[in-house]
Amino acid sequence: MKPFTKVLKRIQKYDIIGVFRHVSPDYDALGSQFGLVTFLKDNFPDKKIYALGKDHSSFTGKLYPSCDIVDDEIFKNNKFLAIVLDTANSERVDDERYDWADYIIKIDHHPASGIYANFQIVDESKCATAEMLTEMLFSKEFKNTVVSQTTAKYLYSGIVGDSGRFQYSSVSSTTFELAAKLIATGFNFVKEVYTPMYTRQLNDLKVTGYLLNNFKVTDKGVGYYHISAEDMKKLGITFEKCKEHVNLLANIEEIKIWVSFYEDIENRLWRVSIRSRDYKVNDVASQFNGGGHDQAAGANAYSYEETYKIVEALDNIIN
């Protein structure tokens, strides 16, 4: 049985479907989640479809709706299907109740890291999970379904977000072909996607100013900055918001790899976002409790001192 057919049959089988994604969601996680949830509600109106996970401090309400608040009893007392999107390993699923499901499907474009699903579709060549979903929903296996403008809008935002607006090496001709199919549904991609994604508030300029005054660059070209919990309080931002500034140091000729370190005081660690133009950084990320793609990865440092070990490790991969 073909993978897309298998997914469709499972969707048809269950009356209750929970759509999950990873913690600290980015555009791809949320775009994929709400794209699929909207698609399922449009095409299977008699089923109960839920988007699970915590809302994002910036993206929710701006581009995406709030996630559903679902009582435990609904999942405990009924057999349901869990579809987990954009999440490499089980530890990063943003709602542990996915594990209560009668059947679990994983759809992801990250390098595989353990098996937690009954069935999975993993394609590391895709720039985004939203690209994978778009390919599936426009496939011949799903020919009797409809992709609405709202579904298309969410999926397009996921592709745009994880491809760096179609700049990363994982973008292919297929990416553009699928994006064109989404745009052809008729949503206003400027007003409905790019404007809410990239319009900033005045306080963002203050954050940018702080980072431009405090970043550092190694002799080999690793650019980085730290934002402590105290800094966040002064700047009036959350650690989720910090992640949005990771590409501030992109497109600077002398900077080969750029890194943001932001303190997660609740979990007593530093969150790390790593990006590069040409160098493979996910191997370094995996050495520091993380992982990801060749040019875009994340990690965790359990002390301020350890953040400099990450800088050193990245320095060592630059020729």
Could you characterize what this model shows?
The chain has 319 residues and is an alpha/beta fold. The protein has two domains: 196 residues, Alpha-Beta Complex (inorganic pyrophosphatase (n-terminal core)); 116 residues, Diaminopimelate Epimerase, Chain A, domain 1 (Roll), CATH 3.10.310. The chain is built from twelve helices and eleven strands. Strands 6-7-8-9-11-10 form a six-stranded mixed β-sheet. Strands 2-1-3-4-5 form a five-stranded parallel β-sheet. α4 runs antiparallel to α5 and α5 runs antiparallel to α6. The longest helix is centred in the first third of the chain and has 17 residues. It is globular, with a radius of gyration of 20 Å.
Sequence-ordered SSE layout with sheet pairings:
Blueprint: H1 3-13, E1 16-20, H2 27-43, E2 48-51, H3 72-76, E3 81-85, E4 103-108, E5 119-122, H4 129-137, H5 149-162, H6 173-183, H7 189-198, H8 202-214, E6 216-217, E7 222-227, H9 229-235, H10 239-243, E8 257-264, E9 269-276, H11 282-287, E10 291-292, E11 296-301, H12 304-317
Parallel strand pairs: 1-2, 1-3, 3-4, 4-5, 7-8
Antiparallel strand pairs: 6-7, 8-9, 9-11, 10-11
